[in-house]
Amino acid sequence: MINNYKNKIISFYKKNKRMPVYTEIMKLVGFKSKNAVAKLVDKLISEGVLDKDSSGHLIPNKLIGEVPLLGLVEAGFPTMAEESVLDTMNIDDYLVKDKDSTYLLRVKGDSMIEAGIQEGDMVLAEKVSSEGSAGQKEVRDGDIVIALIDGGWTMKYYRNRTGKVFLEPANKNYQPIYPENELEVVAIVKGVIRKY
Amino acid sequence: MINNYKNKIISFYKKNKRMPVYTEIMKLVGFKSKNAVAKLVDKLISEGVLDKDSSGHLIPNKLIGEVPLLGLVEAGFPTMAEESVLDTMNIDDYLVKDKDSTYLLRVKGDSMIEAGIQEGDMVLAEKVSSEGSAGQKEVRDGDIVIALIDGGWTMKYYRNRTGKVFLEPANKNYQPIYPENELEVVAIVKGVIRKY
DNA sequence: AGTATAGGTGAACGCTCGTTCACCGTCAAG
DNA sequence: CTTGACGGTGAACGAGCGTTCACCTATACT
User: Mind giving me the DSSP string for B10-72?
Assistant: First the structure.
C-alpha cells in the first residue's frame, strides 16, 4: 500500500515536473485529512523515498529522477540489495553540460559505425560558437563533428593532424572527404544515446 | 540582463530540483519587491522560458530539462533558428521506462564492440523479474543481456534460436559461451550512453 | 518641454500552505 | 479484557504564497 502511495507521488512528479503539495497528495491517494498526508510523508522521508527542504516543501530525492549506478558490468549486479548501489546518477546532468548549445540529432547511415555510432542512434551535439554565442568549444583533431562541407551536411571525424583539414568516416567502405571550398564545423558530438 | 535572470532561475532549479517561489527569485536576482518578480515572471512566460500551473506555482517548461531535438544528422542544423527545432526531448524519460528496475553499469572489455558498445560506455539495464518484482520483461533471442553464467558475470547477446541457449559476443575474436551448468539472465540491456 | 513606457518599490489582499492538537476506530499482544 | 500502536479524521494556527494597486523614477521619443 505504501508503495502504491509512493508511485502515485512519483507519477505526479513526472507528469507535472514538480512535487505535489499536501492537499494534492490527499486527493491523489484518497485521504480526507492533510494530517494523514503529513504522517505518510514523514514515513516516506524516513524511508529515504522523499525529501523536504528547509521551507517544508517536498523535493524529489536521489531515488526520483536519478538512476542507480552499479559497478562494472563484469562485476554484475552485486547482490541486488539496496545497499550495494554504489551511487546514483542523473542522466541529463551527466550528458548535458551546456544547456543552451546542446542539441539532439538522429543518426542516419553507417559512416561512423566503427566508432560505435549506428543508424538510429541519437547524438548529443554541442554547437560551436559562431562568435558571441554560448559554446566556445574548440574543435580538436579526432573529435566527431557535425559539419557543413561544400554545401552538404555530414557527421565524421575531424582531422587536422598535418595542418590539412579533412573529414574521415569511421567505416572502411568510405573515403575521407577533403573540402573543395567550404568546411564549417557546426557542432561537436559530445555523447551518444541508443535505445533498444 | 533578462537572460541572466533566466539562468539564475534555471540554476536554482537544477540545484534544488524545484522551482523557486517569488521571494526566492527576489533574493536570487536582487529585487526588493515581489511585484518586480511578478512582472519578470510574466515576461519570461510570454517568452516561453517558464510556465505556471493552475495554482500559480512555477513549473519548468520544455526548455528546462529537455533537449531540443533537431532532425536527421544528414539534414544538419537547420538554419539554427529557434523555429527550426522540431521537438524537445527529455533524455531520462526517453531511456528509463521502468524506474524501479533500471540500473546503470559501466562497460568493461570489448566483447560487444561490433554491437556498438565500447569500453567505458554506460549501459541501461532493466532487471528481469525474479518473481513478484516489478520488471517482468521476457528475454528474447537477440537481446543484449547481463547474465550470470557458471558463476561469472558477462554482457552478451542472448541466443535461443534453436532451443539451445547460449551467449554470443559481438566480437569475432571471442567465442560463443555455452553454459555448463548455470545461465541466469539478470537484466536486459535497454540503452547505451556514451560521453566524449 | 512634454509624455509615454519600462522597470522598479512598498504595502495590502485573500488564500493556501505545512504544521499541530485532540480524537476515533481497528487490530494484535499481554 | 485491557492496552498500546497504527492509521486515519477534523479543525484550527500562523506563516508564506501569488496577486494587485498606487506610486516612483529613469530613459527615449515626439
Answer: HHHHHHHSSPPPHHHHHHHHT-S-HHHHHHHHHHHHHTTSEEE-TTS-EEE-TTTT-EEEEEE
CATH of the domain at B8: 1.10.10.10
* Per-residue pLDDT tens digits for A114-136: 999 999 999 999 988 655 445 55
Tell me how close the Cα of B176 comes to any Cα of chain A, in angstroms. Answer: 17
Report the 10 Å Cβ neighbour count for B75. Answer: 14
Average pLDDT for residues B125-137, to the nearest whole number?
Answer: 66
Distance CA A1, CA A6 (A): 9
Domain of residue B17 covers 2-68
Task: Find residues whose C-beta atom lies within 7 angstroms of strand C.
Answer: A 21-24, 34-35, 37-38, 41, 52, 56-58; B 31-36, 39-40, 43, 55
In the structure, how far is the CA atom of residue A1 from the C1' atom of nucleotide C22, in angstroms?
Answer: 27
Which residues of B, range 83-142, sit inside 8 Å of A by Cβ? 89-96, 99, 102-109, 113, 116-118, 121, 123-125, 127
Residue B59 CB lies within 7 Å of the nucleic strand D: no
A172 touches A99 (CB < 8 A): no
What domain count does chain A have? Answer: 2
Question: Would you state the pLDDT for residue B83?
Answer: 45
Residue B161 domain flag: yes
Q: What is the pLDDT of residues A147-190, one digit of tens each?
A: 988 878 899 999 998 878 999 999 999 999 999 888 889 899 99
Confidence at A28, pLDDT banded by 50, 70, 90:
confident
Residue B50 has pLDDT above 50, yes or no: yes
Higher pLDDT, A65 or A102: A102
List the single residue in B90, B146, B194 with the smallest CB-CB distance to A73.
B146
pTM of the shown model: 0.84
DSSP class of residue B136 equals -
Side-chain-side CA neighbours of residue B136 (13 Å): 4
